[in-house]
Design goal:
alpha+beta, 2 domains, five-stranded mixed beta sheet
């Protein structure tokens, strides 16, 4: 016979973090009737607030091309307005969108282990575009770092914006001999060698293979170049752990893949460094160059 008292004792407790959340819908073409979720917002009983973009930036880039910056500016304006309102009133009631084409959806109540868990539930229920990854196969396989949609081009643009004199060191090729494939190096000066790429949960196996190839390209330079460099690094973009557009199981696999890359790098004295923003990556590259300059 079952001991129900014992079963209730060992049963997993229900999540004790509660919050109210709501989506924000945007109608890009006024009067068209076409709406999609662009923001997820939540406030908790403990007073915490979070308002986040429900569409990944590269998806917006794929959808709107050279108008993506304008679209992102609109989303950021709405985020700032709603976040300010929630922090002041801890309630959705009374908020007026600064953009006519945007409106608040139905407010729901949720429980989870933390705010990120609540937001992930909200994304799954209302934001279909959050699951998309619109990089084309051409962008994914392009080794020239030339696509406007790639992480590398944004990283490069940020470094050049801060340090214009560094532009000469980007997008280099290195050949061990005349018959070998040229190694592709994102940034190669006489002081440092740095490669970069993305590691994201969607299409993870392909990303992992590409990242391994980037590290091997650095190894070719390290083992055969005449210059004695102090820094060989692979800066790999990864989403933040609290990004609600990805689930916990996806982050488990991502962290396993990242650990694999770090093990490979450690064997060859190539440091693998995860970064989450172009600002963070650019600052690390500039600091490395200036330390040995």
């Amino acid at each position: 016979m079952l001991n129900y008292k014992e079963l209730f004792t060992i049963a997993q407790r229900a999540p004790n973090f509660t919050a109210n959340w709501a989506p924000v819908y945007l109608e890009p073409m006024m009067g068209s009737g076409e709406k999609f979720t662009v923001i997820i917002a939540a406030y908790a009983e403990d007073g915490s607030v979070r308002v986040c973009n429900a569409i990944r930036p590269h998806v917006v880039k794929a959808m709107y091309g050279n108008k993506s910056n304008n679209f992102n500016s609109i989303i950021e304006l709405i985020i700032q307005s709603l976040e300010s309102h929630l922090k002041k009133y801890n309630n959705f009631s009374g908020w007026v969108s600064p953009v006519v084409a945007a409106r608040l959806g139905e407010v729901s109540h949720a429980q989870s282990s933390d705010m990120t868990g609540v937001l992930r539930q909200a994304v799954q229920l209302t934001a279909s575009l959050s699951s998309l990854d619109f990089f084309s196969s051409e962008d994914e396989n392009d080794e020239r770092y030339s696509s406007e949609n790639t992480w590398a081009s944004q990283f490069k643009a940020k470094v050049i914006s801060d340090k214009p004199s560094f532009e000469q060191y980007f997008n280099k090729e290195f050949k061990v001999d005349g018959q070998a494939r040229a190694a592709k190096i994102f940034y190669l000066s006489t002081n440092i060698a740095i490669n970069t790429d993305r590691l994201i949960p969607t299409n993870l196996a392909n990303h992992l293979d590409r990242n391994k190839a980037r590290i091997l390209d650095l190894l070719s330079v390290k083992d055969h170049d005449i210059f004695t460099r102090n820094t060989f690094e692979f800066l790999v973009y990864r989403p933040q752990d609290d990004d609600p557009t990805y689930g916990k199981p996806q982050f488990v696999k991502l962290n396993e893949a990242l650990h694999t890359l770090q093990e490979i790098g450690d064997k060859h004295s190539i440091r693998v460094v995860p970064v989450t923003t172009v600002q963070q990556a650019a600052a690390r590259l500039i600091k490395a160059e200036q330390q040995v300059a």
